[in-house]
Amino acid sequence: MTDCINIRFQDSDDQEMMTDEKWQAIISNDASYNDQFFYAVKTTRIFCKPSCKSRIPKKENVCIFQNAEQALHANFRPCKRCKPTNEKLPDSEWVAVITEYIDKNFTEKLTLEKLASIAHGSPYHLHRTFKKIKGMTPVEYIQKIRLKIAKEYLIETNKSIADISTYVGIPNKPYFITLFKEKTGHTPTQYRQLRKMEE
Ligand SMILES: [Zn+2]
């Protein structure tokens, strides 16, 4: 469980053991445990009160902390929904959490609903806040990342268009080609040929 914490804190005993009792409190959103511990999720880097009604994480990804300070020191961010530090997370930080998640997981199927559930907020609020901060919607941002990586693959590898479209999280090849053309003015094959000629 050492990857939950910073090197700096590795020797301390800030981190608590997960027990069946704590796990039960987490999955039943038991508010009576709220002053006893906090739980953090490694994959999203967000931490919550036991009572948080966000979706239940995988048990192996959960770290337990005695207080919010320790979770913050270990580089986790407070959940926007249950506000474990009892302060509102600034929108820019919330959007940063989601942007990081997209950057790491763009190869998977990502919907606004899924992102909202991971980020502990409503899809509507996520859409609006993300656009306010980044100037584009989460779906536009996902597309942008996918096309950026696709361009790199087209130039730097000889992978087929089908392989690249699957790799960047758009398994529907015709859709990938249409989207690519719409955003760049060229089909993926044209783009690759043009860039190769430039070399
Ligand atoms: Zn929460």
From TrEMBL:
SMART domains: HTH_ARAC. Keywords: Activator, DNA damage, DNA repair, DNA-binding, Metal-binding, Methyltransferase, Transcription, Transcription regulation, Transferase, Zinc. SUPFAM superfamilies: Ada DNA repair protein, N-terminal domain (N-Ada 10) (SSF57884), Homeodomain-like (SSF46689). The keyword Zinc applies. InterPro entries: Ada-like_dom_sf, Ada_DNA_repair_Zn-bd, Homeodomain-like_sf, HTH_AraC, HTH_AraC-typ_CS, Me-P-triester_DNA_alkyl-Trfase. It comes from the Bacteria. Its cofactor is Zn(2+). Residues 96-194 form the HTH araC/xylS-type domain. This is Bifunctional transcriptional activator/DNA repair enzyme AdaA. It comes from Metabacillus fastidiosus. The lineage of its organism: Bacteria, Bacillati, Bacillota, Bacilli, Bacillales.
